[in-house]
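Technical note accompanying the year-one report. For the benefit of new consortium partners, we illustrate the data format agreed upon in the data management plan: each record pairs a sequence with a C-alpha cell string. No post-processing was applied to the example shown here.
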Amino acid sequence: MKFIFLLPLLAFFQTFPRLARPAGLLPAPHLSLEPLLPIYLQWEEISLICSPPQGEEATSYRFFNNEMGEISEGVSSQSGKGQVVTAVQGGNAGVYTCQYSREESGEKILSGDSNSIQIPVVDSLLPPKLSLDPLYAFYFQGEHVTLRCSAPLGQKGEGYRFFKQSGEQIVEVFPHHKSNDQFFITAELGDAGIYICEYWRWESGRMIPSRTSDPVSISVSDSPVRPRLTVTPDHPIYMTGESITLMCSAPTNATVLGFRFFRDGQNTGSPLGNGSAQLPLLRMEIEDAGSYTCDFWGPEAVQEIPLEQSAPVQIILIDAYTPPMLIMDPPSKVVSEGYPLSFTCIAPWKTEETSFHFYKDGTKIVPGNTRSEMSSTERWPRNVFKIPEVGLNISGEFTCMYEENMSGRWISSPWSPAVNVTVIASSRVHALFWLRSLVVGASFFIINSLIFLIFHCCL
C-alpha cells in the first residue's frame, strides 16, 4: 500500500511511444552459394546460404532477386544459417541478396542487405540427333548396327555420350568400337532397349552437356533359319562354257517378297519369288567363279528386312582343255587289207589319272579284236590303239579324246583333229603286184633289146 501513490506516475509513462531499434541495426549477413561454380546450367539446383555475423541470432531469413523481388523465405539450418534451394533459369539469373531478422521485445528487427551475388547461367545446348545405320524395325543376333549422335548444324561437340534405358534404369554405355560421334554394336538380345545420346563442350572451365536426343529403340530377335542355296548340276569343278542354275530356297512358312544372290559379297541379282528363286549362269567364263550366297527379305514395318545369308557355295572353273594329238602308223593314211594299223593319242600334259577314248566316224570304239596299250613319258601321257589286221570296214575318220579326274569329277577334253584312213582290198593289191612285175619285166626286155641292136649295128 506504500506505493499506491506511484500508480498515476506509471500510467503517465505508459502513454509515451515504445522505443524501437532502428531498421538496419542488425549487422548485414553474408550470402554464399553451394556448389560454387564458374557458370550454371538452366534448371540446375543451387543452394543460397544466408549467414548472420558471428554471435548474431536470427529467427527468419528472406532472399531477393533484383529482377523477381523476394523469391523465398529461407529455412533455418542447424548451423544457424538460412538456406533456400532453387533451380536457376535464364530468366532469374540475376543478382541475389538476403536478410535475416529476429524478435526483440515483441518487435521484428531486420538486418541490413547482404553482399550481392550474380549467378551466370548458360543456355542448354540444343539436342543432337540419334540415328541407326542400317535402320531396321528389328535386328537379328549377330547383325551390326551403328548408333550415330549428330550435333545440330552450327554446333560443335567436343565429346559424345550414349545412354541405354532398360525399364526405369538409364546407364551410360561403353561399346567396344567407338568414335567421337558414333559407336558400333553387334546386336544381341541383351542390347535391346531405348537409346539416347548427348554431346558436350567446355565453357568457362566447365563441361556443358546438351539436352538429350530423341530416343531410338533397338529390338533384337533370334536368328532366323538360313535359306538354302543349291546348284544344278552339282559338281566339285566346272569347265568354262558349261551352264548351271543356282536356287535359293526360303524356310518353310516364311513370308518372302524377294531374294538376293551374292558372288564374293557383291549383289549379282535380286529376283522376286515366293518360296524360292533361281539364278542361271549360262556358258560360264572364268570371272563367274567365286563364293555364292543368297538371302531373302520380307515385309516388316514397311521396309525390307534382310535375313541371314545362306551357307556359301563355291563355284570352281577351269579353262576348256587343249585337244590331244592323234598319230597314225603308217603315216601315209593308206593301209592294205590284212596289214597292221595303230593310232597313238597323246595328251598335252601329264596328270595323275587320265583315261583315253578312240572314235571312228563319231562312234566310240569298243575294244573287241583290237587292243590298246597305255604308256607315258616324263611329260605327256599317251595311249596306243592297235589293229593287228585291218579289214575294209576300218576305212573312215578316226579321232580321240581324254578324260582327267579333277577333284572327283571326270572332265572331258575336246576331240583331236580327225585322221582319215583308207584301206586297200587284197585283190587290188595282187593286181597291182602283177602289173608292177609286168611293167618291170617289159622295161627290162626293151632295154636289153635296144642294147643288142646297137651293139650289132655298130659292130
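Partners are asked to follow this layout when depositing records. DSSP finds two helices and 41 strands in the chain.
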